[in-house]
Amino acid sequence: MPDTQGTVAEFQSPQGVRERCVALPDIPGGVYTRKDKAREEKFLAIDFYDQHIGLCPKTWSTSPGTMVRDIAATGQSQADYERVCKGKVVPSTVKKLAVYKQSMNQSNTSGTFSMSALLYYHFARYFDTSVTVPVAVYREMDRKQHYQRVTKRGDALTSSGMIAAGWKHMATAQADPARFAAAATLFTPDRSKIFGCMLKGKGERYGAEINGVRSSWGTVQNEEFQRTAPYMALSRDLPLLQAIDEGKRLAFRDAKVKKDTVDASAFQMMYWMKELSELVLLDYIFSQQDRIGNIDFQWKWYWLDDGKVESQDADSKLSRRDMSKIKVPAELAGFSPVLLQRTVLNDNDAGGRVEYVNFAKKTGMLQKLRHFSADTFERLQRLNRDLQDGGEIFQYIKSQFVLDDKQVNQIVKNTRLATDILQDTCSIGKLRFDLDAPKQFFLTGRVELAEVAC
After folding, report:
1. Which residue, 182, 119, 113, 187, is CA-closest to 147?
2. Which of 21, 27, 231, 325 is 20 to 30 A removed from 433 (C-alpha atoms)?
3. pLDDT tens sequence across 45-61
4. The organism sits in which domain of life (predicted)?
5. Distance separating alpha carbons of residues 447 and 387, to the nearest angstrom
6. What are the distances in angstroms from CA 248 to CA 171, 181, 261, 366, 446?
């Protein structure tokens, strides 16, 4: 990890190996919340050697990872718990604290780059996004301890697919880092520790309303994503409310998309459109290759009280398929609240590497946008100027993330290309800056259109 001015917590393994957990310093111009800082502090307090902390191998999906859990209420010892734990369903006595992930990009594995989640976290705060991106911190661990407590079981419990291949490569690499070609992406320079990111996501997986019908992986599913109602609306050169109606009409030609799009009110669509425009921009900048199918949501209640828009999180397990059975909380019943799905990007681990396929770029997602946030556009232009001039954000990227020169240059290049695309669309009068005020629309029923210099 490069030298950092962030907040550092140090731990020591039983073998005397000193480990670090680092909450990176704030990105210049970033907007962080109290919840962000509280989450960072919780991650910094996790000691893998505390007897109340259990580490379990992730044995589902495609990429290996370590599930970090509080086992104090189980009454089990750390060794006894780790000897038998498996699966993502855990008893009520176990608290899920985080997932700890490393880079793994061998030919037969899923693409995973640990710096990607850190980049997404801090750049989402730079852009002050509506879409939620989870807090992430840098974390090291004694490689021999990780092998004994996690990797050995992950390798034993998986037998096929990319997840098994990932654990097999982890086991081989930890046994002899010198013979692992990608050692610099997995181990600290002295090879005594693995490094990666630690984060905790929250939310449920969208269906076809946002992730599309997903008839095939790669280019096809990224094109299908562009046939969802909110993306269709984003790409219509019409006033916002007309674009929303037209986007729904076009998207609902597909029966599955229509069935899965539970609430397509103008208020919901405005949030979806803003969130997806931010998603596309971030994915373009970081060359994300594995977004579609991995977009999540959280429920949120909105209501009007004394001329103000109020909101609160709702039960994440509410049935998306039968809205009529969802009950309004008793304390909100008098306000006639509306329930919205708000987008969450929990899975951000396949960006940042030059070798990844940039599907946002490949399928022309930015070029098709006709609606955008004025604030996001202005922040993008400032970011581009800084990166082109080697300014403070450029220096932040160079000093705070484990990136090589090609990876840094790719971020600089993609930011310039993204800026050029949106400036060109703006300059020919095809980009409407009308996505900044969904709450104001909920309050007044009017769409606010900002004037922006291209």
Report:
1. 187
2. 27
3. 999 999 999 999 999 99
4. Bacteria
5. 33
6. 49, 49, 9, 20, 20
* Residue whose pair of structure tokens reads 């997840």 in the numeric block: 163
Rounded to whole angstroms, how far apart are CA atoms 297 and 86? 26
Cα–Cα distance for residue pair 201/90, rounded to 1 Å = 16
The position carrying tokens 């905790």 is 200
267, 301 Cβ separation under 8 angstroms:
no
Can you give the C-alpha Rg of the chain in angstroms?
A: 22
Question: Quick check: 154 and 64 in contact, CB under 8 A?
Answer: yes
Structure tokens at 35: 């919840």
Mapped onto helix, strand or coil, the DSSP state of residue 313 is strand
Listing DSSP states for 111-168 in one string gives: -B-HHHHHHHHHHHHHTT-SSB---EEEEEEEHHHHIIIIIHHHHHH--SHHHHHHHH
Lowest mean pLDDT among 249-258, 272-281, 312-321, 376-385: 312-321
Could you tell me if 197 and 177 are in contact, meaning their C-beta atoms sit under 8 angstroms apart?
no
Among residues 225, 269, 224, 207, which one has the least CA distance to residue 243? Answer: 269
Return the minimum-mean-pLDDT range out of 234-243, 330-339, 373-382.
Answer: 330-339
Non-local CB neighbours of 97 within 8 Å, separated by 6+ positions: 42, 46, 53, 68, 69, 70, 200
β-pairing, 371-372 with 432-433?
parallel
CA distance 145 to 173: 14
DSSP reduced 3-state for 195: strand
Q: Are 99 and 68 in contact (CB under 8 A)?
A: yes
SS3 266: helix
- Cβ within 8 Å of residue 235, ≥6 positions away: 226, 247, 368, 369, 370
Residue 217 pLDDT level (bands cut at 50, 70, 90) = confident
Cβ–Cβ < 8 Å for 197, 118: yes
Tokens 């490094």 correspond to what residue? 195
* Residue 335 to residue 436: CA distance in whole angstroms: 24
Q: How far is the C-alpha of 302 from the C-alpha of 427, rounded, in Å? A: 36
Residue 315 has pLDDT above 60, yes or no: yes
How many of the other CB atoms lie within 10 Å of CB of 358?
Answer: 20
